[in-house]
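Question: I have long wanted to understand how a fold can be written as tokens. Here is the record:
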Amino acid sequence: MKVDNTRVTTSEVSGSSDVKKSEEAKKTKEKKSVSATEILGAPAAKTQISDKAKEASKIKAAASAAPEVREERVAALKQRIADGNYKVDSKAIADKLVDEHLASAAAGA
């Protein structure tokens, strides 16, 4: 291989991969931005919210607006306790505790 001090032009090394990459980069920069209509040949799609989604949104808003404590229920239970009419079903409470324990143990296993 012989090396001399002559200048090499880009046309002489046009097969070089670096030159090709550089030319491609220049072409990419020159490209203009295009809209979806120009690419797809159709107007951009519109987003529509389904009736179920609208209904779910209304339900969520209503639930958010509801108080966390049901004052009427609390007052009624306080009155039943004060009157001596509120009876605790200890069997139902025990069953619920066991069910919840078994469920959490199964989920952790």
Q: What stands out?
A: The chain is about 60% helix and 0% strand. Residues 51-108 form one domain. The longest helix spans residues 90-108.
